[in-house]
Design goal:
Length: 284
């Protein structure tokens, strides 16, 4: 029996849980504070940042969005981050990616206080993840975390399963592979130089496509009963589609996530969860 996983519905369920947590933190004396920095006017980034702003507001966060001009200088952006690092009302800082060409992304990410790094991109946080330091106060990237939460809430077993991650980005593929490894999956990471992609993907019990190529994975590339997770968000003829060829993969899958309405909403839910975690770290 095929199950189409409803990420939007699971995110809603998470928000009702988080609302309760926010109430408690407010009573304690301070709501969680989130600062989102958006540089330029990329339409997709604008959409995502609007959603983050709206949901932070709905949850009762103290939320601020900094909409900066495309030609902001490296120094100006670093100065803004420095101010946010020092702002006691702000628990979480997110700089929406991608940044314009003239900005050095790595330096910006490293400028963020690792304990306000609700994106989990700072090397202190990725380093803790990649070296398996679980107990310390570690922030994990929102999309991989959202996928783990989806698998958990759907009751999908991970231990001993063969997980194949297609894509090796710092934002999704690499951190996700480590989270799966930590849960005792046998993990393969595929990328553009993988010799025989279909041979690898056919082995997957859990397949995650995170490349950004529409319909890259087709039904003939997966095995019966696969759990297929689609991270791709591609615009084709004005429509959103994932990296999975949904119609052919769903014929063989046990579970599949749609685009839209799958992983995307979970990413935002995990940003909110991380911001609450940061607020707990900082105290009132
Ligand atoms: N710093 N940059 C930083 N942190 C992030 O976590 C992100 N990302 C990615 C891009 N840059 C970032 C996001 O927030 C991708 N991403 C993201 C967030 C939300 C959604 C998609 C990507 C989302 O809500 N997707 C909806 C459809 C939205 C639409 O209509 O375009 C969905 O249902 O999939």
């Amino acid at each position: 029996m095929l199950k189409i996983i409803n990420g939007k519905e699971i995110a809603q369920k998470i928000y009702s849980e988080l609302r309760e947590e926010v109430k408690i933190l407010e009573k304690e004396g301070r709501a969680p504070g989130l600062a989102v920095v958006l540089v330029g006017s990329d339409p997709a980034s604008q959409t995502y940042v609007r959603s983050k702003e709206r949901i932070a507001g709905e949850l009762g966060f103290f939320s601020k969005v900094f909409r900066e001009k495309e030609d902001i200088s490296q120094q100006e952006l670093q100065d803004l981050i420095k101010r946010l690092n020092q702002d006691r009302e702000i628990d979480g800082i997110l700089v929406q990616l991608p940044l314009p060409e003239h900005i050095d992304e790595k330096t910006i990410i490293e400028a963020i206080d690792p304990y306000k790094d609700v994106d989990g991109f700072h090397p202190l946080n990725t380093g803790r993840l990649f070296s398996g330091q679980r107990d310390s106060f570690r922030f994990e990237a929102c999309t991989p975390l959202g996928i783990m939460e989806l698998l958990e809430r759907e009751g999908i077993e991970i231990e001993g399963k063969k997980a194949v991650v297609v894509g090796r980005s710092n934002i999704v593929g690499k951190p996700l592979a480590h989270l799966l490894l930590e849960r005792n999956a046998t993990v393969t990471i595929c990328h553009s130089r993988t010799r025989d992609l279909a041979k690898e993907t056919r082995e997957a019990d859990i397949l995650i496509a995170a490349v950004g190529k529409a319909a890259l994975i087709t039904g003939d590339m997966v095995k019966d009963g696969v759990v297929a997770i689609d991270v791709g968000i591609n615009r084709v003829d004005g429509k959103l589609t994932g990296d999975l060829d949904f119609d052919s993969v769903k014929e063989k899958a046990a579970c599949i996530t749609p685009v839209p309405g799958g992983v995307g909403p979970m990413t935002i839910a995990m940003l909110m969860k991380n911001t609450i975690k940061a607020r707990k770290y900082h105290g009132v």
